[in-house]
Every structure is written in structure tokens, then in C-alpha cells.
Amino acid sequence: MDYEGFFAKAIDKLKAEGNYRIFAEIERHAGYFPNASRHTENKKDEITVWCSNDYLGMGQNPQVLKAMKDTIDLVGAGSGGTRNISGTTHQHVILEQELAELHQKENALLFTSGYVANDATLSTLAGNMPGCVILSDEFNHASMIAGVRHSGAEKRIFKHNDVADLETLLADIEPSRPKIIVFESLYSMDGDIAPIRKICDLADEYHAMTYIDEVHAVGMYGPRGGGVAERDGQMDRITVIQGTLAKAFGVVGGYIAASQKLVDFVRSKANGFIFTTSLPPAVAAAATASVRHVRDQGQERREQHQERTKTLKELLTDAGLPIMPSDSHIVPIMVGDPILCKQVTDDLMSRYGIYVQPINHPTVPKGTERLRLTPSPIHSDEDMAELVKALTEIWSRLALKWAA
Ligand SMILES: *Cc1c(COP(=O)(O)O)cnc(C)c1O
Fold first, then answer.
1. Under a CB-based contact definition with an 8 Å cutoff, are residues 90 and 80 in contact?
2. Whose C-alpha lies nearest to ligand 1, atom 6?
3. Which of 72, 87, 107, 111 is the most buried (most CB within 10 A)?
4. In sequence order, which ranges of 259-337 are alpha helices (DSSP H)?
5. In angstroms, rounded to a whole number, what is the distance separating the alpha carbons of residues 237 and 234?
6. Ligand 1 site residues, Cβ closer than 6 angstroms
7. Count of CB atoms within 10 A of residue 181's CB?
8. Cα-only R_g, the chain
9. Which strand (E) or helix (H) includes residue 44?
10. Which of 55, 99, 110, 115 to mutate to test the pocket of ligand 1 (most atoms within 8 A of CB)?
11. Which of 99, 215, 359 is the pocket-test mutation for ligand 1 (most atoms within 8 Å of CB)?
């Protein structure tokens, strides 16, 4: 085996398809989001970021920064261990209490990321219940798919957000078998929202558990930032709510919130929880500050966020750009070709100082390559005018498809 040759060939194939990933090296400036610097070989340019998942700008919130700095001064950098062996600090325990409270569940459990939370929890739940069947939305995130695979349980895929298809599958399963319906509240590449109430109705009818990924909704939806399930009054009907501290909360880490017994079970059994060092206490303290802030003082920010999104969608529509219909703060623009998609974003960056990362395969299916804009409460009218002007010029120059 020519190992190096093998890697080189695989990379060449990605490049030929237009799917080779190039990372933008950016330097964020606390207090100036969405502005940042971008480093290239020998220079540094000022850019406006339009694709961050720091949706509310909490990554630079003064209370969050203060909590992180103060905690470092008090307790140092790392946690010093796994949760079981000296790594359960006071800061972790407080954060878990706060997350349980946010979602009105008996308990919560922290993981090092949202990815790990999904993988570890799903593999542990479905892998330990004999005969368990997973019903999984076809557009579920890679981390949930990993958890489903690692469980080794039987899985059935239902059509995206399609409750009729889900019901057909449920009706087909031997009633006594354990079942978990696995879905997201807000799908982050299309910006559409799941019919949570109807899925919970089916779960009741067929006696299934529900597992919801609210990663793109926590902090931003619901009167306390509890997510779409809170907004829709369904939080108490969901068995497991999974979220991240890395997107709207602006820090890092993942979690689940559920019943005391379920959390205790996952805590006791999940390798992805047990065999890894816990997050630094300063990270946990910063996340706690963020969750509290977003819960108690976030309503104005949530409203601003929705207003900014609505304004951006209107401006793009008026300009004739092909935005995809979305029910949320995520604004996708279809390009449908990986090479053109990358050309658009290269032009945005090099000619206009606007940073939008092209979204290509495997994040989205081939032929649906797109731009994915994430307006924040902090993007100004001027930022939006510049973005729309740049996109309009690029669309003309590259002769791309306008809205029908
Ligand atoms: C980003 C993402 C995750 C992973 O969360 P991290 O905290 O970034 O690891 C999980 N689910 C969905 C839907 C995501 O988009």
C-alpha cells in the first residue's frame, strides 16, 4: 500500500469535484463582532463575518468574559480529570443545575461538545435497551447518525419532517419494542422547523421516547431561550432535550436534559462521558453566565435577532436573490454547484471583505451547495446593504440563477 499516494489521490478527487475544504484563518475581536481580521500568507484584512454560529454575539458578552477570567484566576486552567476521577468541579455541577432548570427537567449532563452529547447519549440509550428501534429523520446531523450507528440498534429513517411517514413506520413496529424518535427542532442547513407537537402526539400514541437536538434553537427561541420546544409549549413532552453551549451561548460544550433516572443511566454507562477529561471549570462558569443572561435578559436580543433576520430576508428577496424558504434565523441561498458556490464566496471575501463559508458536500447533498447566512442582532443596516450589493454584483458577473 502506497499510503501517501492514497491520501493524495483522495484529496485530488475532492479538489476536482470542488469539494476540497479551505479554512479561512480569522481573528475575532472581542467587542467588535461581526467584524474580524483575516490572515493570509503575509497580510491581515478586515472582514465582516456572515456565517458565524455565535448567533447572539454571546461569545463577547462582558459578563461571560468576566466569568471566564474570574474563574481562571480562582481555580486555574484545566479541570484535572474525568468527571469520575477528580474532574467534577463546583462549576460543572452548577452549570448542570442551570441547564436542567432551563429545560424544566429533573437533571442535565454535560459533555465536551454537542457532537459528543449526541453520539454518547444515543449510542448508550439505544445500545442498552434490548430490541430498541430508532426512528431517525433523514436530515439528522452527523453526530446523531454516529450515535445511532454506534448503538448497533435497528434504525428506520423517516422522510424529513414527515409525520405521516413516521406514523407508517411506527405502526409497523412490534408494539412492545422500545422506540426512540430522533429529530432536530431546527435544521441548520435549511432553516426549517420540526412539527414537534405532532411528533410528540405520535410518541404518546405509540409509546415511544423522543430525543430532540435543539442545538440551533437553544438561547434563541422560547421566552427563556429554552428552544423551539419551549416556544411551542412542548418541553415537558420531550424525553431528552440535547443542546450545545457553543452556538447561541457563545462558549463550548454540549449537554442533555432529561429525567433523573435517564441522566443517571447515561452518566453511568456512556463511554463518551466517562472516559474523557471534563471541560475547564472556567468554560463551565462562562457557560453558566451565558445561560443565565440569555434566559433572564435575552428577550430583547431574541426579538432583535428575529427583526434582523426578517430585514435581511426582505432585502435579499427584493434584490431577486434565490433565498430558500426558511422559518428561522438561518438564511440559505441556493447555488446548486460546488465550484460556483466557492467562486461566490471567494469573490465575497477577496473583493468585498465579506466572509461566508460555502456549504458543500457532505454537509449538504451534492447539487444543493449553498450559501448559509446567519444574521445576528449585531449586524447593522450598513452591513446588510453591503452584503446585498456584493451578492447582486457577483450574481450578475457569474450569470447565476436569480429567484424564479
Ligand atoms: C453543531 C451541531 C452539533 C454539534 O454541536 P457542537 O457543540 O458544535 O459539537 C450537533 N447537532 C447539530 C444539529 C449541529 O448543527
1. no
2. 114
3. 111
4. 260-269, 271-274, 281-297, 299-318
5. 5
6. 113-115, 118, 141, 143, 184, 188, 213, 215-216, 244, 246, 254
7. 25
8. 22
9. strand 44-49
10. 115
11. 215
Burial class for 13, CB neighbours closer than 10 Å (0-12, 13-18, 19+) = exposed
How far is it, in rounded angstroms, from Cα 235 to Cα 92?
23
Nearest to 49 by CA among 402, 386, 393: 386
Among 105, 160, 117, residue whose Cα is nearest residue 138: 160
How many whole angstroms from 351 Cα to the centroid of ligand 1? 31
Per DSSP, 333 falls in state E
Task: State the pTM of this model.
Answer: 0.97
Phi, psi dihedrals of residue 193, rounded to the nearest 5°: -120, 140
Residue-wise burial string across 380-402, b where 16 or more C-beta atoms lie within 10 A, e elsewhere = eeebbebbbebbeebbeeeebee
CA 175 to chain centre: 33
C-alpha 214 to ligand 1 mean position (Å)? 9
Mutate to test the pocket of ligand 1, among 192, 212, 244, 374 (most ligand atoms within 8 A of CB): 244
> Can you give the pLDDT of all 404 residues of the chain as single tens digits?
999 999 999 999 999 988 899 999 999 999 999 999 999 999 999 999 999 999 999 999 999 999 999 999 999 999 999 999 999 999 999 999 999 999 999 999 999 999 999 999 999 999 999 999 999 999 999 999 999 999 999 999 999 999 999 999 999 999 999 999 999 999 999 999 999 999 999 999 999 999 999 999 999 999 999 999 999 999 999 999 999 999 999 999 999 999 999 999 999 999 999 999 999 999 999 999 999 999 999 999 999 999 999 999 999 999 999 999 999 999 999 999 999 999 999 999 999 999 999 999 888 999 999 999 999 999 999 999 999 999 999 999 999 999 98
Catalogue the active-site residues: 247
- Residue 184 CA, closest ligand 1 atom number: 13
- At 85, which amino acid appears? I
Cβ–Cβ under 8 Å, residues 181 and 211? yes
